Amino acid sequence: MSLLRLRNLSVEFATTGGRFRAVDQVDLDVDKGDVLAIVGESGSGKSVSMLALMGLLPWTAKVTADEMVFDGHDLSKMSARARRKIVGKDLAMIFQEPMSSLNPCFTVGFQIREALRIHLGMDRRAAQARALELFELVGIPDPEQRLKAFPHQMSGGMNQRVMIAMAISCSPKLLIADEPTTALDVTIQAQILDLLVRLRDETGMGLVLITHDMGVVAETAQRVSVHYAGQKVEEQPVRPLFRSPHHPYTSALLAALPERATDKRLPTIPGVVPGQFDRPQGCLFSPRCPYADDHCRKVPPAPRGPDLGLARCHYPLNTDERLAS
Amino acid sequence: MLRYVLSRFATFLPTFIGVTLISFAFIRVLPGDPIIVMAGERGMSQERYDELVIQFGFDRPVLVQYWEYLTGVLQGDLGTSYVTKRPVWDEFFALFPATLELSICAMIFAVALGLPAGVIAAMNRGKFYDRALMSTALIGYSMPIFWWALLLIIVFSGNLGWTPVSGRIDLLYYFPDTTGFMLIDSLLSGQSGAFTSAVRHLILPTIVLGTIPLAVIARQTRSAMLEVLGEDYIRTARAKGLPPGRINGIHALRNALIPVITVIGLSVGTLLAGAILTETIFSWPGIGKWMVDSIFRRDYPVVQGGLLLIAVMVMVVNLTVDLLYGLINPKIRKR
């Protein structure tokens, strides 16, 4: 039994223009010690699916799932109160903007001790000792002084370390990192990623990394789940994915890596992710896909088998390679 | 910090002079003559009138009169009442505790009900409680104070007989003014029933005076809370699995308080202005009623001095509010 098992997860938002499906029938599995990267453009529903799992979506969102099982508990069938016992303790999340994700009115020490006292029932002294330990663990220099600091007195990188310390304070079984390095300098990005991977190695927790940076994926992930317009379009271990992507979207994403550019102009995927009103009838990627034909535009493809990376495509790529091997 | 306070005091000076100028000019623009008012229905002879004009200095140019008044004020002399012949300063401080007591009670009433009302409305955005609370607040804000006061008097004092109509305490009780605050003095006096009587006298004026600040605070708290609840750090708090009471009451409210404190500070001005009406309606012996009486008597020094002291009070309160920001918002706290 995997640590996290999502089956047929969908999220719909009630908007003034009607319902908008931000996550569409997504299946995901994460095991202990696993590093899963979820990649996709903005608007592909990668953050929303994880926020749905955490129960952090606004009331306008309607979450449906056949299974949303974490560590043996079906979160979709739990009361809000019971769910709060798990969220923040066994299931933790860090966010994109460390500066605005910490409360400006309280010291970071207060914010980290708060989690310890609520979930683990620690007294003031024990919480302080554990907070010091956590700050050292995530590499914050001069932890005793830093615990007394307010978020605005520290840099973005330091604040993200605080967020990580807070998230791992109760030794979670799964940590979800939602674009944890997007708002940071390149040098700090590498440090934060190293820290996350090191913590995964030391604690054996599962790690879900939401990102749109293929470089980050290549360096840290074991498995990659590619999302497009709310759907999971492909999932493969990291090496095979980079070597032989089966979905044209994955292939286009990899081709768009600046590192792979040979031309003077950087390669791009023409067009944008379909929104609420221009959702195609057939394959969601068909308007942007160089291989699409009339069949693609009419009939939505179902996921293929695991040997084809579960690709949602009528004409998966790199099938010959599979036959050859 | 000290430099900041001093620089704020420096900006007080132009305001201060402006207030003296306006109060000095306006009371003189009003039709009526303090000497004739003083003479009453009997009237007085022309010789006596001319004598008094010279005695009060009204024969000299207005600019000279203003200059004398201003130099007096800067030396701490606010003048002497034409009617009671007592220094304005003494009269003000004899009556001010009554106003202060009423204002503090009104403010406590407004904050104690306004903050929770705003928080509850924000948490139920667009639902029944939000609509009910916010329409009530709008009614409270738009209602004329004197009409509201009369309505309450008719219902609670007239029909139901629950509260007294006017004054600070029943005539049965007599005790010395130790602090000037009736609630404290009545307790100190040890007379049974005195404190209850003082409280019963305070209820209606407090509600009337506190209504507008209450409405303003409730609406401001709601909008500040709604803004804060959309912030990333509230999502973090929820991701930590904190209970909703803690998220709204600690993480959100602390941030929402920053704009609310400004509004509370500004309400103090409204409160002192509102006190004039409220005190007149309830015959509350505070500076509001004193000011109104003095305007009718054309008691120039009292009106000028009273306005000036109220203005200074409002300025000091606003400065205090600015300094309070530092306590609530660590971003502007000096290290």
UniProtKB/TrEMBL annotation, chain A:
Entry keywords, A to Z: ATP-binding, Cell membrane, Membrane, Nucleotide-binding, Transport
GO MF annotation: an example: ATP hydrolysis activity
InterPro entries: AAA+_ATPase, ABC_Ni/Peptide_Import, ABC_transporter-like_ATP-bd, Oligopep_ABC_C, P-loop_NTPase
Coiled coil: none
Annotated Pfam families: ABC_tran (PF00005), oligo_HPY (PF08352)
One GO biological process term: peptide transport
Membrane topology (UniProt): Peripheral membrane protein
Keyword Protein transport included in the entry's annotation: no
SMART domains registered for this protein in UniProt: AAA
Compartments, record wording: Cell inner membrane
The organism's place on the tree of life at top rank: Bacteria
Entry annotated with the keyword ATP-binding: yes
One Gene Ontology CC term in the entry: plasma membrane
Domain ABC transporter: 4-254
Family: Belongs to the ABC transporter superfamily.
Protein name stated in the entry: Dipeptide transport ATP-binding protein DppD
Species of the source: Limimaricola cinnabarinus LL-001
TrEMBL record, chain B:
GO cellular component annotations of the record: plasma membrane
Transmembrane segments: 12-30, 92-120, 132-156, 198-218, 256-282, 302-328
Record's bilayer topology term: Multi-pass membrane protein
Keywords, comma-separated and alphabetical: Cell membrane, Membrane, Transmembrane, Transmembrane helix, Transport
Pfam families membership: BPD_transp_1, BPD_transp_1_N
Highest taxon listed in the record's lineage: Bacteria
Record Gene3D superfamilies: MetI-like
Principal place of residence: membrane
Location(s), subcellular: Cell membrane
Limits of the ABC transmembrane type-1 domain: 96-325
One annotated GO molecular function: dipeptide transmembrane transporter activity
Similarity field: Belongs to the binding-protein-dependent transport system permease family.
Name of the protein described by the UniProt record: Dipeptide transport system permease protein DppB
Species this chain originates from: Limimaricola cinnabarinus LL-001
